[in-house]
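Protocol step 4 of 5: obtain the predicted structure for the target chain.
Materials: sequence only (see below). No template structures provided, no constraints applied. The aim of this step is simply to have a reference model before the mutagenesis design in step 5. Sequence pasted as it appears in the construct record:
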Amino acid sequence: MKWWIRAGVFLLGMVIGFCKMPVIKVGSGDRVSRSIRYVALGDSIASGYGLSVPETDSYVGLVGSYLEENYDYVFKANLGTNGLRSDQLLDILTDPENEKYKKYHATLEDADIVTLSIGSNDLLHLVSLNRDLQDYIEEGDQMFRKACSEFDYYFPKIIQEIHRISPNAEIYANNVYNPCGDISGFGNIYDLTERYVELLNKTFSESEEYTLVDIKEEFDESEDSLLNMAISGKELDPHPNKKGHARIGSKVIQAIANGGKGGK
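Step 4 output (structure tokens):
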């Protein structure tokens, strides 16, 4: 009887071990089944805010579909959170007292691909249409430059933490587009926001730690409207529309297909 118990424990251990294996399972003959673990991190752009069917129409959904066409088994998890700033994401990844810490770590563990959309809210949370444009020009410069400087501090640490949690992950990080291209009637607000978007984007660079996906260039060069731009009361909705997500998804997929640069 004891040997049955020992055999059962052994088999249970084998099953648990196989369940944690993230990448390859060998089949019969020359057939090899490939699997991949994909985790999306970031803000409301990652979550697909404003889309009718974010599960499929968001860039995260499109990347997931691409992976499903090329792998037999795809684990997908979208941790995109509306309104998330870089300091908040770093806190989630580093502070065990944060209520999301365990979930993020468990989900990121053994990730093969991580996409990251972060930085927009570092600037946007400072914007209010209640304030006069001239106020921003005269008083806002220090405020926005401070936000860009803080992002320059937080972002590299986010990349380091992702690699610490999942050392073999390929990271694909989107830079930030100017959300004011579709706004009319607000004077030089595009030129004003462009100043700080460009400053924020200086933090992103070609790196061996991650692959930069240049969303800014994609949106700047598009002749189509890629934003779900709307003004409700004193609130802006600067999120990508379905076309915008398709453009982002295409850029990320192209980067993945080219092999990326991250993943130590």
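Step 4 remarks: The first helix runs from residue 2 to 20. Residues 1-31 have pLDDT under 50 and may be disordered.
Proceed to step 5.
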